[in-house]
Amino acid sequence: MNLSFLAPIVSFLGLIVGIFLSSITKDEIISGRKIFEFLRRISLTIIILIALALAVLNFNLIIILFAIILGLLLSRKLKNQKLSYLFLGLISASSLMTTKFMLLIISVLIFIYGLLYGALLKESKTEIIISNLLMFFLPFIILIMPFIGFGEILSLSSILLFFELRKI
Length: 168
Fold this sequence. Notes:
The protein is an all-alpha fold. About 80% of the residues lie in helices and about 0% in strands. It has one domain. The longest helix is centred in the N-terminal third of the chain and has 25 residues, at about 35-55. The model has no long low-confidence stretch (mean pLDDT about 75).
C-alpha cells in the first residue's frame, strides 16, 4: 500500500505543532527567538538547495530561467505577503514524483520549517493556519494536470522560494 500522499499532510502539521508548542512555552520562545529564526532560515535554505539540485539534475534550463524571472517579479510585487507555504507546497507536490527517500527528506524539512515558523508567529494563529493550509495544498492540483512535469514544478518552486527567503 502506497502511503506517499500522507507525507505532505504530516509535513504541514509542523506548523500546527509549532503553534501549539509556542502557546505552551512562551518564555522559552522569547529567549530563543534569534536561534529559532536562524534555524528556520537554515531549514528553508536546505529545502531550496535540495529542490534546485533536483531541478538542475533534470536539466530544465529554460524553466529555471523562467522561474528566476517570475520569482523576481513576484518578490517585487508581493513584498508584504508571505508566500513560503505556497512554494513549499510546490516543492512537496513535486517531491511526490521523486523517490520515496527524497519525499521523506523534503517532508521532514518542511515539518521542521513549519515547527519553527509556527513557534515564531505573533499574528492571529487561526488565520495563518487557514491561509497557509490553502497555499500549501493548492499546488497539489498541479499533479492532476498532465501537461506540467516534475522539472517545471520543482524549478519554479525552488527559485520562487529563494526570492521569498530574500525578503525575510
